[in-house]
């Protein structure tokens, strides 16, 4: 059974994500305004998109007029990972997760929300709903603050804040890689592949989103072939 | 202005559909072990590919970024939470960049 207790447990679990999102979206807001977007344009993008890498790439593409196709292509490749997470999450969703709830709450599948939800044995809709609240608020408020404060904060501070996103990724990956050798293998392959894709001539001309997807599929594929997960695992 | 709204629709629309469609349509338990294993490893692989080597180019001084990267790795290895790791990485980058500007 899904109860209100699950909602509040989710709410609490979402707090660190919300705080982290605040700092990341602060740099998004600052950057968007420095590109010439108004504060509300930046806020609306965050409100309806809720994705880090996609938004950063998106506003950069939007600087040039007429970029509909490149924008679509970059959004699909950068965000393709969500589909994989989404399928993964569908396997853990509680029976109470009906079709309408899936269409509604699917909106909130971000890297970090997914990572926390994946830690549950069974994902209950109320837990998931609670989990999404503070990250969404943090993401929007951070964008608002960044776009209003952007002109005040020094460039060096803004630069430093852009690392927050990666810090969160590291905090999700490292503890699991430390404990599970197969995950460490996947992480190692992904890291090497990603470096090759950005340094080797020929490969480095690939758009960032595409190389991320290729490396992730390669790394997860090799790990899955060598270390199939046990039946009771997600 | 129209350009902004169309781009917004493209960004929000593709992101939403990529997230919601598989979640809503895949209702059955996937039986294939390879696919199940692949789905288990994929998030870690994606996050890693997004972080390395991009983090080194996120900041003007690659050495400052490297310092932030190492601090984040150590804290994450010690199982610190998302916020602690993220803020420590930012502070390290900021302080290191500050030191570099003194020389």
Write up this protein.
The complex is a heterodimer of chains A (234) and B (103). Chain A has 234 residues and is mostly helical. Chain A is 76% helix and 0% strand. Chain A has 2 domains: 4-163, no CATH class; 180-234. Chain A has helices at residues 4-34, 39-49, 52-62, 68-90, 99-105, 111-118, 125-149, 155-161, 164-179, 181-199, 208-226. Chain B has 103 residues and is mainly α. Chain B has one domain (2-101). The mean pLDDT of chain B is 91. The interface between A and B is large, with 106 and 74 residues.
CA-to-CA gap between the ends of chain A? 20 Å
Largest interface, C-beta within 8 A: A-B, 106 and 74 residues
| H/E element order of chain A | HHHHHHHHHHH
Q: What is the tally of beta strands of chain B?
A: 0
Which residues of chain B form runs of ≥5 with pLDDT under 50?
none
Shape of chain B: flat
The gist of it:
The complex is a heterodimer of chains A (234) and B (103). Chain A is an all-alpha fold and 234 residues long.
Which key terms come to mind for this protein?
heterodimer, A: 234 residues, mainly alpha, 2 domains, B: mainly alpha, flat
Topology:
The complex is a heterodimer of chains A (234) and B (103).
Chain A: H1 4-34, H2 39-49, H3 52-62, H4 68-90, H5 99-105, H6 111-118, H7 125-149, H8 155-161, H9 164-179, H10 181-199, H11 208-226
Helix pairs in contact in A: 1-2, 1-3, 1-7, 2-7, 3-4, 4-6, 4-11, 9-10, 10-11
Chain B: H1 2-25, H2 33-51, H3 54-57, H4 62-77, H5 82-101
């Amino acid at each position: 059974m899904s109860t209100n207790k699950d909602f509040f447990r989710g709410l609490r679990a979402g707090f660190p994500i919300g705080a982290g999102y605040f700092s990341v979206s602060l740099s998004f807001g600052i950057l968007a305004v420095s590109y010439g977007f108004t504060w509300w344009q930046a806020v609306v993008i965050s409100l309806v998109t809720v994705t880090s890498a996609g938004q950063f790439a998106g506003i950069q593409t939007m600087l040039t007029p007429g970029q509909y196709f490149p924008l679509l292509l970059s959004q699909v490749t950068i965000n393709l990972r969500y589909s994989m997470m989404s399928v993964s999450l569908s396997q853990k969703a509680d029976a109470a997760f009906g079709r309408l709830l899936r269409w509604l709450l699917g909106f909130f599948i971000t890297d970090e929300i997914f990572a926390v939800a994946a830690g549950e044995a069974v994902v209950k809709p109320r837990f998931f709903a609670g989990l999404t609240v503070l990250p969404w608020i943090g993401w929007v408020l951070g964008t608002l603050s960044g776009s209003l404060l952007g002109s005040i904060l020094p460039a060096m501070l803004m630069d430093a804040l852009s690392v927050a996103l990666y810090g969160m990724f590291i905090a999700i990956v490292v503890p699991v890689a430390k404990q599970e050798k197969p995950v460490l293998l996947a992480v190692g392959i992904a890291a090497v592949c990603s470096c090759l894709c950005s340094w080797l001539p020929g490969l480095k001309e690939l758009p960032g989103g595409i190389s991320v997807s290729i490396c992730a599929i390669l790394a997860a594929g090799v790990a899955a072939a060598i270390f199939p997960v046990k039946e009771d695992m997600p | 202005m129209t350009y902004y709204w169309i781009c917004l629709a493209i960004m929000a629309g593709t992101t939403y559909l990529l997230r919601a469609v598989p979640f809503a349509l895949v209702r059955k338990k996937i039986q294939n072990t390879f696919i199940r294993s692949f789905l288990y490893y994929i998030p870690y692989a994606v996050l890693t590919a997004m972080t390395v080597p991009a983090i080194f180019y996120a900041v003007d001084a690659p050495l400052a970024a490297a310092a932030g990267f190492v601090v984040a790795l150590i804290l994450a290895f010690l199982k610190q939470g998302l916020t602690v790791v993220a803020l420590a990485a930012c502070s390290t980058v900021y302080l290191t960049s500050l030191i570099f500007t003194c020389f």
